[in-house]
Amino acid sequence: MRLPSVGSRVSLRYRLPAGSEPPLTEAVGHLEAVAPQLRLRTRSGELVTVEPADLLNIKEISVRPVRTSQIRALEHAAALARPCPQQDWVDGWLVRAGSSEPLLNTAVPLEVSAQISGLAGVARWYDERGLAALLALPERLLPLRSSAAAPEKVLVRDLTDMLDIPGGEPVELTDGPGAAADGALTVARLPGAAVAQAAVTTAPDGSSWLGIFGLRVDPAHRRTGLAGRVCATLLDWAAGHGATRAYLRVPADDEAALGFAESLDFRLHHRCRYVEAQALLGGPPPTI
């Protein structure tokens, strides 16, 4: 069982001492230690200590309570950061196609009006283009329960306390290819060693977000701090462009990437899962 990092906000379920009634209980709070015992500080200030053998389940939750409207706003800013060659609105769903990245060719329920009843129209939009409809479903936006492929964690941090940029060769910033919709786009490079793209976009609620994506480090230069230098430079760049918060999208099972994000003070905001529309509509998939 992977334990969230110290400082994460978690929900845990654990056994009480023998003879306790009830025998199990739950707690929510911030982790203060994970070894040799788990220590969690609740909102009321109580310190809960749990032996590892008594821990039944632990789940990381957003570092502070997040409203559904805030999830929708962040996802809208993320969609603006990476527009697709083909995109449109269908019954409150943003439908997208034509990207070289499969997980961008998805339909996401960004408007409050987006409902399960609109899936037939979404599927038809993709079918007209010879594509199967894949849905990006940020948690809590729709009351759906379904098995999901490639679950992601969306991690965020504020841009108030900036990271120190380590010394060394300066990170080069150049205008990115294409353009973010209603925002600024850049590419950060350490030539021959590391590269990442970033965009600053503004959500409908007025919040301004930095998104970092496409971070790659040459295998010969990994574990030398270059990824951290690139990200620290991008956080500084974004603050100069009016961003107040930043986000990363990380596969939920990529422990190395999650550990790196947490080392930069990114913490969970929400999760997103990917589901084929046909699995929710029922019946055989369309012939394409």
CATH level-two architecture of the largest domain: 3-Layer(aba) Sandwich
- Count the beta strands: 16
| Proportion of residues in helical segments | 10-25%
The CATH homologous superfamily of the largest domain corresponds to Gcn5-related N-acetyltransferase (GNAT)
GO molecular function, one term: acyltransferase activity, transferring groups other than amino-acyl groups
Pfam families: Rv0428c_C, SH3_Rv0428c
Summarize the structure.
Helix content is 18%, strand content 38%. With 288 residues, the chain is of the alpha+beta class. It folds into 3 domains: 9-61, SH3 type barrels (Roll); 68-151 and 273-281, no CATH class; 155-271, Gcn5-related N-acetyltransferase (GNAT) (Aminopeptidase, 3-Layer(aba) Sandwich).
Structure commentary:
The structure is a single chain. The chain contains 5 helices and 16 strands. It has 288 residues and is of the alpha+beta class. The protein folds into 3 domains: 53 residues, SH3 type barrels; 93 residues, no CATH class; 117 residues, Aminopeptidase (3-Layer(aba) Sandwich). An 8-stranded mixed β-sheet has the order 9-16-10-15-14-13-12-11. Strands 4-3-2-1-5 form a 5-stranded antiparallel β-sheet, with no helix packed on it. A 3-stranded antiparallel β-sheet has the order 6-7-8, with helices on one face. A hairpin with a 4-residue loop joins strand 3 and strand 4. The two termini are 41 Å apart.
